[in-house]
Amino acid sequence: MFFYQIPAPNEALLISGSKGEGGALFRVVTGKGTFVFPWKSKARFLSLDLRQAQINEPCVTSQGLTLTVQAIAVFKVGNDAQSIINAATRFLDQQEQVPQTIGRVLAGHLRSIVGNMTVEDIITNRTKLAQQVIAASSDEMETMGLKLDAFQIQEISDSAHYIEAISSPHISAVQRDARIAAAAADQAAAEKENEAKAAVAGFTKDSEVAQAQAQAAVEAARAETSQAGPLAQAVATQKVTEEQAVLAAKQAELREAQLQSEVQKPADAKAYEIRTLAQADKEANMARAEGLAGQNLESILANRMVDLMPEITKALASGLNGANLTVLNGAEGITDLFTQILSQGQAVFEAVRATTPKLVDGSKTPE
Amino acid sequence: MPDDFESVLGKQGRVSVAIPAAGAGQIILLLNGGSEAFTAYCLGGEELAMNAPAVVVEQTGPRTVFVTGC
């Protein structure tokens, strides 16, 4: 506006048409504005922004090993006037192509960098890598007015598997240690598990023993309880039996008493009666005998004869039976016979009296 | 040298890439309100380790300086 030009913070204003300070080919203005009069000057802008180049280049290491290295380079136009002038004179109109061009240049630098290093250095020696980058590129970049802000290797492809071979001992050692640690951990875990199992088994044993003891106590109590009924019944039965025995004894006693009262006593009474009667009879007889003792013995004998007459007659008749007696007088004859027999009876009586003196005494009464 | 730009001569900075006896390293200087990295060489076979302080004693290019330890 009104020929007043102001560069952006990331731009440099290049004014040609007059020499710059210090013999510069043109004026370089950054950070402030200035008048640019078209009829005497021409103003152009140069971006000072970061630019980046991607590099993917096969490289040979100092050991002759071929690697494919992928790197990224970040660079910009230097902030000082000399760098801006160098850059402006080289690619003011080719700013879009700068990354590609610089990428190619840096690819060559990368080959020289890798060629001065071993794989191990590339991987581990950062200082040496940075020094090699500076040594290889700084002069050319400076000449082009550029400053390499960052140069990083992103990836290394190793077709010979050299890097794997480098890493394998370490990997093996790490895997060995890991397996040892895992085995030790497994062993410790197994030990702990077995200890735990043993403890559990012990607890289980104790528990089952306690349960069995409790069960045994319960069974014993239950058996005792279940036998209590029959035992009580047996005791009761025993007592009943004893009571029955006692009852039987009592009944026997009662029976005996009954027998005594019903049988013995009457028998005794009967016996007593009989004895008493007998005694009385005896006494009566004795008394009678004594009474009779004074009577006529002959009358007694006569009475006796009268009593004995049938017998005597029978005996006489049997004696006559043998004498073949014939009665001729009829009824009178029989009366005569009896008279004779009776007279004979008188004679027999005399004979009997002679042979039985005791009867005369009357001490014994014929039954 | 244009007046718009500050001179690096006498500036003290920090070594960001170790400077070997025969070779280039890098030094970071506070310049123009910001910080800028310069390719750095040592004088007289001196070596400077990383992060060592250094003073610019000579400028041989727009981005190249000679330094010495301090």
Portion of residues in beta strands of chain A equals 5-15%
Structural class of chain B: mainly beta
Q: Predict the CATH topology of chain B.
A: OB fold (Dihydrolipoamide Acetyltransferase, E2P)
The radius of gyration computed from the alpha-carbon positions of chain B, rounded to a whole number of angstroms, is 11 Å
Strand order of the largest sheet of chain A: 3-2-5
Kindly name the structural category of chain A: alpha+beta
Instruction: Classify the helix fraction of chain B into a percent range.
Output: under 10%
Structural summary, described in words:
With 367 residues, chain A is α+β, with helices and mostly antiparallel strands. Chain A folds into four domains: 4-45, no CATH class; 50-84 and 91-165, Tetrahydropterin Synthase, Chain A; 212-294; 296-361, no CATH class. Helix content of chain A is 66%, strand content 14%. Chain A has helices spanning 81-91, 98-115, 119-124, 126-143, 162-293, 297-321, 330-355, 357-361; strands at 4-5, 11-16, 27-29, 34-35, 42-47, 51-60, 66-77, 146-157. The longest helix of chain A has 132 residues, at 162-293. Chain A is rod-shaped and about 245 Å long. The termini of chain A are far apart. Mean pLDDT of chain A is 84; it is low at 359-367. With 70 residues, chain B is mainly beta. Chain B has one domain (12-69): Beta Barrel (OB fold (Dihydrolipoamide Acetyltransferase, E2P)). Chain B is built from no helices and five strands. Chain B has strands at residues 12-17, 25-31, 34-42, 53-61, 64-69. The radius of gyration of chain B is 11 Å and the shape is globular. The mean pLDDT of chain B is 88. Classes of the chains: A alpha+beta (367), B mainly beta (70). The A-B interface holds A 20-22, 24, 28-31, 78-83, 86, 127, 130-131, 134-135, 138-139, 141-142, 145, 147, 149 and B 1-5, 17-18, 20, 23-26, 31-32, 34, 36-37, 39, 50, 61-64.
